[in-house]
Amino acid sequence: MSTATAPAAGEAAAARTPGPRRRRRRSAEAAPQTGVRTRAATAYLLLAPNLALFALFFLLPLGAALVLSLARTTGVGPTEWVGLGNYEQLAGDAVFWRSVVNTAVLVLLTVPASLALGLLLAVLLDKPVRGRAVFRTVFYLPYVLSGVVVAIAGRWIFNENIGVVNRVLEAVGLERVAWQSGAVPAFVSVAVMITWGRLGFCMVVYLAGLQGVPRELHEAASLDGASGWQRFRHVTWPLLRPTTFFLVVMMVIECFQVFDLVYVMTGGGPGNATQFLPTYAYAVGFGARQQGLGAAIGMVMYVLVLAGTVLWWRARKDQEAEA
Amino acid sequence: MSTRPRARTAGRFLGLAAAAVFMLFPVYWLAVTAVTPREDLAGGRPPAFPNEVRLSNLSETWQSLPFSQWLVNSLSIAVVACVLSVTLNLAAGFVLAKYRFAGRGAIFLVIVSTLMIPIQVVMIPQFRIVAELGWLNSYWAVIIPRAAEAFGIFLARQFMLGIPDELLEAARVDGAGNLRTFVSVVLPLCKPLVAVLVVFTFMFRWNEFAWPLIVLREQALYTLPVGLSFLQGQNGTDYAGLTGMALLTSVPVLVVFLVFQRYLVEGVARTGLK
């Protein structure tokens, strides 16, 4: 445990450098040897309420969801065990497949859009510019609003008859769009509102990430004659990779949680055009009271999110190994 | 040479201003609609600038449904949940960042892995557990199952990893106990973290929709987002009332955000949320 006696200056500097992995190792090594037993007891004591809550409200329900997905039940009356029957039923359920495809398309549309726009705004805000604090607040503001409020704004703005979007389209001589009765336009309107609500979060996280890019690297690259774009492409972007990774995971998970916005804005319609896995799971599990089938949809979501995270994690590891 | 950077700064400002207009527009449009006389909206041409600001739209809608009761419900739930969650987050973050004990890595992994669970996966069993505990139709049904949150614990841990161990050891050498060390050494260093946790927790609880919708069955117990969703659709949507209430019910969360927002980027940067 040599680091326990390391000079304080060195330790403080290490704590300041952005690099969670390095910090973690150091703090573990630096933990003092005295009173280990009482400290472990304190640690468990302080963690106990958290662990109890996680066990009761996440781990137990996760196990219960798996069990429930093998049953047919409405919550009242007898439970009928059907094995993989619910999963077989889903395999032949067109609305389920529609929800899977819709969720995938939502990820492909909104995640890159939120990240790209968030990054663009963060880069514009990273250097001194007049009104920076105001801009930052304005861009972040939609993220603070509830999904219900964003949905109400979306319903009103994209209202087919008197919505402002169609009025603008008309004013510039374009056709009105069937935002509420057309399948594709309805989907687009939902994706637009989701991106509007989330890109401020991406911006703040990217802003934080940009603070970790050393100015000296940029200056050195400038001296070597690198243009602004080249500096971004070869210095900033690679250093933002962990930030991007975090945001992709967060945004994908949010696509698998999307509920209030869709429930209020389109109700999954028209004709399931905006039905996603979470809204369909709710409609089946609570609307139609087929709890086992709803749980089965939930398990499919869980497996998809888990598989996606693992795949992405691996890809990132490979990339890092190459670099 | 001197004009180029200036031109670039001006360009950046213009770009940001354009983006700001785009980002603010939906909120502006909600506000304009909220104060436009209903007969103007019915004409199918809501004006870009209201000819007349009619604030009675708001008061009429407020009185048409138990909004005051819903406001009390929402505030009680958000404040209690915030205090409880932030306390639990800080305790767990401190322990996971600064204590060494068997199972630390495994416990952290289990907590973080719950981040990956889409809430709809566990909602039906959660509902059954809450019902079993007899909490349906109570504030506790909303507060307790969400009190421990992986996201907050993750943020707290990442932030506290950056607190030098020397400080904690010095406190210990001076004879401070665990609690004393936490309160007088760790907490004062954690202001940006607490700000971030308060903003996120208040926002999540205030805005939550699906879970309260399920566990609060009585109208008198609804939170604002749940109540709000009932304003639309009944006999054709009253957009003046709906948009007004949407904005009004966002005010508390906006206040919390504005009070704490200057800590936000610093807090996020130092929590290693990147």
TrEMBL record, chain A:
Family, as annotated: Belongs to the binding-protein-dependent transport system permease family.
Claim: Transmembrane is one of the keywords in the record: yes
GO-annotated cellular components: plasma membrane
Location of the ABC transmembrane type-1 domain: 100-312
UniProt cross-references to SUPFAM superfamilies, sorted A to Z: MetI-like
Name of this protein: Sugar ABC transporter permease
Membrane topology, from the record: Multi-pass membrane protein
PROSITE patterns given in the database record: ABC_TM1 (PS50928)
Biased composition (Low complexity): 1-18
Organism (species): Vallicoccus soli
Parts of the chain that traverse the membrane: 43-71, 104-125, 137-158, 178-208, 239-259, 293-313
Location within or outside the cell: Cell membrane
Entry keyword set: Cell membrane, Membrane, Transmembrane, Transmembrane helix, Transport
Region (Disordered): 1-34
Example of a GO biological process term: transmembrane transport
Coiled-coil residue windows: none
Automatic annotation (TrEMBL), chain B:
Pfam families hit by this protein: BPD_transp_1 (PF00528)
Domain (ABC transmembrane type-1) ranges: 71-260
Chief location bin: membrane
Biological process per Gene Ontology, one example term: transmembrane transport
Localization (cell): Cell membrane
Gene Ontology CC annotations of this record: plasma membrane
TM region positions: 12-31, 70-95, 107-127, 139-160, 181-204, 239-260
Magnesium found in the keyword field: no
Family recorded in the similarity comment: Belongs to the binding-protein-dependent transport system permease family.
Entry-linked PANTHER family: ABC TRANSPORTER PERMEASE PROTEIN MG189-RELATED-RELATED, SN-GLYCEROL-3-PHOSPHATE TRANSPORT SYSTEM PERMEASE PROTEIN UGPE
Protein name: Carbohydrate ABC transporter permease
